[in-house]
Amino acid sequence: MDTRLDWYAPGFLDRALSLDLPEFAQEFLSLNDHYVRGYQALMSHHVTDAAARQRDLATFARPWGLRFPY
Questions:
Q1: Considering only CA atoms, which of 38, 40, 44 is closest in space to residue 59?
Q2: How many structural domains comprise the chain?
Q3: N or C: where does the chain have the smaller number of CB atoms within 10 Å of the terminal CB?
Q4: Which DSSP string do the residues of the chain spell out, in sequence order?
Q5: Residue 31 lies inside a defined structural domain of this protein
Q6: pLDDT tens profile 3-20
């Protein structure tokens, strides 16, 4: 998430319009501190069981309206 767009920078609109829908959604969510903290916690929690990992992803994604690729 280090590549966040600066929504106030000159040229932002041109860059934003070049994003596809998932990329734009990711940029929008990256501005939400609750999402960022939850995502960081999810990525730092290493689960070896694939089924448990999918449950964790689904639980995290549900409130944000996301679906992670399997």
A1: 38
A2: 1
A3: C
A4: -TT---TTSTTHHHHHHTS-HHHHHHHHHTT-HHHHHHHHHHHHS----HHHHHHHHHHHHGGGT-----
A5: yes
A6: 566 777 788 778 888 889
0.85 exceeded by pTM? no
Q: CB atoms < 10 A from the CB of 30, how many? A: 16
Residue 13 lies inside a defined structural domain of this protein: no
Whether residue 8 lies inside any domain: the answer is no
The answer to the question of residue 1 being in a domain is no
Residues shown for the chain: 70
d(CA 22, CA 51): 25
**Structure-token pair, residue 11:** 């040229």
Let me know: does 39 contact 1? Beta carbons within 8 Å. Answer: yes
The range of the structural domain enclosing residue 24 comes to 20-64
